[in-house]
Specification:
Chain lengths: 262, 67
Amino acid sequence: MTQRPPGSLSDRDFMRYSRQLLLPEVSESGQQRLFAAHIVIIGLGGLGQLAAQYLAAAGVGRLTLIDGDRIELSNLPRQLLYCEADLGLFKAEVAANKLQAAHGGLALRHHCLAFDADNAGHLLAPLLAEPHALVLDCTDNFLTRQRVNQACIERRLSLVSASVAHFQGQLFCLDGRSLAASGCYHCLFPADTRLSQSCSTSGVLGPAVGVMASMQALQALNLLLDINDGGYLHRFDAKSLHWQHAKLTRDPDCPVCSPLWS
Amino acid sequence: MISIQLNGEPLAVPEHASLAAVLHERRLDPNAFALVLNAELVPRNRWQHIRCRAGDKLELFSAVAGG
């Protein structure tokens, strides 16, 4: 695990990141902040593998990749980081190797296991001391999404969550600056919510996953750069290509986040 | 009766109907949906307590958990 040395940007950094450095919202100080950021990506399927590539390419300094699944043939139409030679290998390991090859200054860790309530503390502990820390929920099931939400709320960690199935995508961001108004994932979808769709049962088109992963990576960068701090649910209809936006609202009786306010 | 919109379609509901009653009337399982009222999410346990007003825009949608 190598780490980019702290300090000012090198000439090569100025060339490499020139297009984003041109943005006043990024500039040298924002790029330094991205270098100092640590993002944990939970799930390296369709969402995670693309979000990870964008964040690594933007110069995020440290990524931790978590996924217990192996690469399957049915993943290849939408998980473009992986190829036929990778079939049967662990997604987190392959993703880490490929990202490291593409971005020498990136510090990477990977864990080939499924995130759960028992390992959450261990997996997220490295974020607790970091000033620019973030979790991306790129998982593929409702129960894990509830666990990720709970783990982030308990540790006051910012969370950017995206999901996609059939022709629908959903994206939101939970951050300490907006959490008192927005509430958490459990406020939006309580644990007894009945689900109708998953990618494995109802199908999905690759680019629809890519749209949501790109938006997730963009929201992550916006959050790290203080461009916006979330609090909205963004829903994408992959048939009409329409987006709808709604303000998240905290449930004062939420068993997950209400302890924060008591 | 008053006129509201449900997922972009006009709908007539009894005056003072609660959000929960709108779902019940349409035989929709409340546990299968989240609800947006005039561009703000309404937590599910508030649906019984909020009454529709003429012109309200309701959106019902399901959780998507795939990735």
